[in-house]
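Hi R.,

Here's the chain you asked about this morning:
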Amino acid sequence: MRIDILSVVPELLESPLNHSIIKRAQEKKIVEIYIHNIRNWSKDKYRKVDDYPFGGEAGMVLMIQPVFDCIRELMAQRNYDEIIYTSPDAPVFNQQMANELSLKENIMILCGHYKGIDQRIRDNLITREISIGDYVLTGGELPACIMTDAIVRLIPGAMSDESSALSDSFQDNLLAPPVYTRPAEFNGWGVPEVLLSGNHAKIREWQEQQAYERTRLLRPDLLEE
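And the predicted structure, written out as tokens:
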């Protein structure tokens, strides 16, 4: 997989995408991640990429020219399965989206900034818009990192134990059950006996029950889907 991320503040992306599982996945050539500074496509001598919106609304808007030229140049080099725009006024990212996107080959993520991007980019070049929640951030860099992390960890070979991702929360519209590790007793707090029994059938039954109960109490909306 190749992921191209377009941003006006690429420094925000460099550290999160160069550690842990994402770093190891890149080292193993499982994924390629490229960060592009939109300012490099600006025709302004000061590398200006924003301007006031028509209509007099407050705030600034990413200009169409540098964004268009950046996307067009990348599209000339390869075909993209998705060109994603990170925006708060979009469908909210979830595990099912991560599963779907992890099967793609080439993905481009355009990070919103300021008041957003010129609508003509959204209307003519973007294939998918994604939000990470009903709130507004300074820019789309953090959402891009979150989506990239969620997607890359699902690619075969990215995690040392690939089956681990299959038991994550939301994979079956359920929250994950509680987990414990050694010691079996600490500060008078014990681990549920069933987990120490060695009876795998009973353990799976306990985990399924716990997953359902946690979902019912904490996220009942998931059971309605």
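Strands lie at 2-7, 32-37, 50-51, 61-62, 82-86, 106-111, 128-130, 185-186, 189-190.

Let me know if you need anything else.
M.
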